[in-house]
Structure formats: C-alpha cells, structure tokens
Specification:
The structure holds two protein chains of two kinds. By secondary structure, chain A is an all-alpha fold. In chain A, helix 1 runs antiparallel to helix 2 (27-36), helix 3 runs parallel beside helix 9 (219-239) and helix 6 packs antiparallel against helix 7 (174-184). The relative contact order of chain A is 0.23. Chain A is 73% helix and 3% strand. Chain A has helices at 2-22, 27-36, 42-66, 72-93, 98-115, 152-169, 174-184, 189-213, 219-239, 245-269; strands at 134-137, 144-147. Chain A has a two-stranded antiparallel sheet. Chain B has helices at 28-69, 80-88, 92-120, 124-145. In chain B, helix 2 (80-88) crosses helix 3 (92-120) and helix 3 packs antiparallel against helix 4 (124-145). Chain B is elongated. The chains are: A mainly alpha, B mainly alpha. Chains A and B meet through helix 3, helix 4, helix 8 and helix 9 of A and helix 1, helix 3 and helix 4 of B.
Chain lengths: 270, 146
C-alpha cells in the first residue's frame, strides 16, 4: 500500500516537472502511468488528476500574473464556455462507460503527440484587431508585444469542447486550449501559455468540486498526486535548463505514443 | 528576485520586467491606476501563495497524523460539510480532505480576484463575465453536493 503511495508521488513529481517545462499538463503522463502500471482505476485517477492540474495552474500563475503575461479578459471570455463544458463533462464522467473514457484518452494522447511532433510550430503574432487587444512585456528581452484576438466565436465553441474533455478525462485541457489560442486566435506563444495555464485551473476547479462531491476523489491517490505535482512544478523550471527542449519534446512524444497504444489496448481487451 | 531592475529593463520601452508600465511615462491618473492594479495583483498572488501553502501543510499534516495513528482512510475525500467535523474529531482524513479542498479553492480566488480587478478598472463587461464564471463554478460546487 505505501509502495503504491510513494510511486504515485514520484510519478506526480515527474509529471509536474515535465508539465511545467513543456507548458502542457502533467495529467497526460500521470493518468496513463497510474492506471496502466499502478492499477489505479481510471475514474479514481481522473479525480486525482483534476486536482493536480489546479496545483500546476495556481503555482505558475503566481509568476505569470506578476509578469502580466496572462490575458485575463480573453481567459474569462473563453472560460464562460469552458466551465459550462466542464460541468457537462464531469457530470457525464461519473456515468459514462470506462472503456469509452479509455478510448477518448488514447485519442487525446495521440492528438497531443501529433501536435508536439515538430519544434514550436507557433504562429507569429498578429497585429491588434480591435477585439480584446492586449500587450505584454517579454521578460527575455524587454520588448512590448501588442496583439489582438481573432475568431473568438470559434474559440468559444472549441473551449466548450475542451471543457467537456477536461471534465471527462481529468486533464487540464491545455493541450487543446494552447493551440486554439496560439494557432487559431492569434495569441503570441508566451501569452498563450500563460493564459492557457490560468484557464486550466479554473476549468479543473469546476470539475473537481463535482468529483469531490460525488466521492470520486480517493485521498490515497489524490494526496500524493497533489503533493507530487506541487513539488514537480517547482523542480521543473529549475532542471529544465539541463535538458534541451528538443530532448524533452522527443521523450514526451514517445511517452505519449506509448501510453496511447496501451490505453487503446486496455480499452480493446478490457 | 535578483532579476529586477538591471539587465531585463529595456532602455527602449522603459518597461519593467514585471510587465507593469514605467511610471515616469504615465500621467498622474494612469500612474494611480497602475499602482492600484499592481497592489491588487500582488494581493491576489499573496492569497494564492497562502492557499497553496495552506493546502500543502494540511496535506502533509494529515499524512503525518495518519502515519502515527494508523488505520484506514475512507475511499473518498469529502467536502467541508464532512471534513470540518472530521477535523474537529481529530481524524486525519479531515485534514487531507481540507487540504485538497484548499487547493481546489485557489482558482476560485483567482476568478474572484479578477472580478475585483475589473470592477476597480470600471470594466463592467468583464467584471460581469468574471462574476458569471464564478457563479458557474459555484454551481458546480452545489451540483457536486447534490
């Protein structure tokens, strides 16, 4: 029993570290590992994971808010749709078939791996559009970036979907929201990362209270997860400098692919 | 902390590394506004830090209690309706549940903080939006308890 506890903790630390280094949630590493290798039931893993996403978000926002990097207005606009989706998703999650969840998860893993296949395919920022214009100061070189938002309605629809997925699978949805903001809506990458990070916490909290209320959060799993993620998120940026981002990315893509295959197999063979 | 001031300050824009505007280039009114926003921003971050530290402390304390007392933990963490009485009864699961709940509350704080910031800026539209998001989140909380 305590071995599992420690292993969950260690997994969460690694997941938190990777998550904070790469800007996507640790959930995509955490959930597959503890369900596939540590025999944690999927719904329990999802409940624990959704709480850990909050840790990643709140811890990072302490930095992003200071840098004024988060586009709060855009986040609130999109969160109207996302939180509504999250309620839908988490209410459904407690009812839905586990196999269906596994398939969905495998699909999400593949989708994320695909999105990471090459180096930052970030779109160059576009000029202010008059809609939700914002600016930030790049901490690396001090220059001010001005940008505007496009395709807001599409962004909201996709955010609703992302919210649903978040509620269903216990993921932050960052892997979906980040490309939505950066590639579709024209937000510069750094601001998109900060804003996505802000949003995933809000979405996850909405789902988390439903999960807790329905008794789907098992402390034996959730507590080491939460502590591990909080620790990992601190360590991540510190050791991130040791590895090249390409190395990290390759490891991540391979891991996600491996998990996707295994999740799909589990769903198929039950 | 040592990043402030020196090499990250761009001579061109005069903007500080923390994203706030250089105060010398603003009018008196804008300066006042930036100062208030800066204060609120700092306040929200402090509350966040408090929440995260509280959460970690409760969780670790709960684990220590559990290690010392032994016994099994319930399979489900509970909302404060149950975890507060548990805490008062000296049960480790009370501490653990509250620790988890404290963590879950931090985004609520962020949204409420955003509401205050928008209200302070007289930005009715986004203040209302933040209030609505907060309402949806609270609805989730109530739905969870149902």
């Amino acid at each position: 029993m305590s071995t599992t506890f420690v292993l969950i903790f260690v997994t969460a630390v690694v997941a938190g570290a990777f998550g904070s280094m790469l800007g996507i949630g640790g959930a995509l590493v955490l959930v597959p590992v503890i369900t596939l290798f540590l025999n944690v039931p999927l719904k329990t893993a999802v409940g624990a994971s959704i709480i850990s996403v909050i840790g990643t978000s709140s811890a990072a926002q302490m930095v992003y808010m200071r840098q004024r990097m988060t586009h709060t207005r855009l986040a609130m606009t999109l969160e109207l749709a996302t939180t509504a989706g999250a309620i839908g998703g988490s209410l459904t999650a407690v009812l839905i078939n586990v196999r269906a969840l596994q398939v969905l998860f495998a699909a999400l893993l593949l989708w994320t791996a695909w999105g990471m296949r090459r180096r930052s395919a970030a779109r160059a920022p576009e000029a202010p559009t008059g809609l939700l214009d914002e600016r930030f100061v790049d901490p690396l070189d001090g220059h001010t970036e001005h940008y505007g938002i496009r395709r807001l309605r599409l962004g909201m629809v996709l955010s609703f979907v992302a919210g649903n997925i978040s509620g269903l699978l216990g993921v932050g949805g960052g892997a979906i929201k980040l490309p939505i903001m950066n590639l579709i809506m024209g937000v510069p990458l750094k601001a998109a990362i900060a804003t996505s990070n802000f949003m995933i916490g809000i979405t996850a909290a909405t789902s988390a209270v439903i999960y807790m209320g329905r008794g789907y959060v098992d402390p034996i799993v959730a507590v080491p997860t939460a502590l591990g993620i909080l620790l990992g998120a601190q360590l991540g940026p510190r050791i991130g400098g040791q590895l090249s981002s390409d190395t990290l990315r390759v490891i991540m893509v391979l891991a996600l692919l491996a998990f996707a295959v295994q999740m799909a197999l589990k769903a198929a063979t039950g | 902390m040592k990043r402030r001031g020196t090499y990250l300050q761009s001579p061109r824009t005069g903007d500080d590394a923390d994203g706030s505007l250089d105060e010398h280039r603003l009018s008196g009114e804008e300066r006042e506004r930036e100062r208030t926003l800066g204060m609120l921003n700092r306040l929200v971050r402090r509350v966040l830090l408090f929440g995260l530290t509280l959460s970690a402390t409760l969780l670790v304390a709960g684990l220590v209690f559990w290690a010392v007392r032994g016994g099994t933990l319930p399979r489900a963490a509970s909302l404060p309706d149950d975890s507060l009485p548990q805490l008062l009864a000296g049960r480790p699961e009370g501490l653990l549940s509250l620790g988890l709940f404290a963590l879950v509350l931090t985004p609520f704080v962020l949204v409420a903080g955003s509401f205050v910031l928008f209200a302070r800026e007289r930005d009715t539209r986004y203040a209302l939006m933040s209030a609505t998001v907060l309402a949806i989140m609270i609805a989730g909380l109530l739905l969870g308890r149902a």
